[in-house]
Amino acid sequence: MAKIVENGTEREATCIEELFAMRDSLDVLGGKWKLMILRYLTNRTDQQIHFKKLERGIEGISAKMLSKELKELETNLLITRTIQDTKPITVTYAVTEYGKSVFPVTETLVNWGILHREKIKESMNSSES
Fold first, then answer.
1. Nearest-angstrom CA–CA distance, 91 and 94
2. How many CB atoms lie within 10 A of CB 3?
């Protein structure tokens, strides 16, 4: 069970509180692209990432969807959008310190995805035998 701190006292969250927290998390991070965008930016904190680089680096995302998702991630304080003093003007994106708190979530999903892919491959190979 998750823990909640109220008035300096820690207690276990109720099932309803956990489900609300899960819904809140999915509202902010849900969908096909947000976690992928965050992971991409988190893996490249030493680089300047502009829109086109993101669009090329995340296979299958449209410019319109990328723009929408970036705005939502910025609204939720997970990324920053910085206008560079260049001609023509360029914009770079970076994960915030707060956004880095999502890393353990993406790490768990990546590891689970790798194991799941292997499990499915094994299942397909054993059914062919």
1. 10
2. 8
